[in-house]
Amino acid sequence: MQDFTTGSWTIFKNPGSKIISINTARFDATKRSSISLIGDAKESILDLQSKLTGYKSDPSWSAKRATTQQMVKSNIEKRISKKLDLPSYAQVVAAINNAATTSDYVLTAAGGLPGELNNNWLSKSLDSFDCEYGYSCMGYEVAGAWGAAIALKQSGSKGKVVSMVGDGSYLMLNSEILSAVNNGDSLIYILCDNLGFAVIQRLQVSNGSKSYRTMFNDSDLKAPFKVDFVSHAKSLGARAVKVTIENLAAEFSAAKDLPGVSVLVIDTDAENWTEGGAFWEVAVSGISDVSEVKQAYKRLTEGKSNQRW
Fold this sequence. Notes:
alpha/beta, single chain, Rossmann fold
């Protein structure tokens, strides 16, 4: 059980809670303080389900679910109502969410987008949301989305795979767009351009450091080269268009009616993020003359005090 899913072992605070780890390989099923179950994931879950016949959760827990759902929706409304020069990730996610249908399938992976979709995407159907965040797999948004499109086509679904990808991930792995085009598959990429690896800059600064070589403007050139993502996607055979938050939903709806691969490029705010609430144990120097580093180290030690082990 790794850092992202456990809040560096601070999230599962109930000492009576148990985690079941399912995997076909014994080595991978063995996770810290979990109950290992060796088997196929789907078959194992079905077997476990049969053993839960008649189980009902406590009414207070069901009531908490309802109030939490309402709180989530209220928080989303607050985030997307902000007036910004460039849209935030939350505003982009919400615009696509509102325009998507129950048959569509959204996918994301690395950078800031997993946190943005986990907080701001409201699923409209079962098995319609894929967030690969085990190891922040940069580029899965491109290649993984193509695989999802193949699977969706084979299932006979009329929906579209929608991949939310940042400019950093796109630059690291984008060639499978050509593969998807040549295979005759149909999907939509929403490419959020914030001029660099903004989530890494956020990590640097939040831990007491100064921004260093994470944004493309941080260059030795007076006028750093800027990628034309629309032209690049077109060169791989995709239909590509630059959009704004005002016409994003309309362009998305239009792309859904078209065959092939579409790429919608939108400039996004590099510093306006959805707030986080979980602890992440990132190493910070315990000895420093920099006040920001000292403050970050204090937050680190306070967070570690809440770890389960």
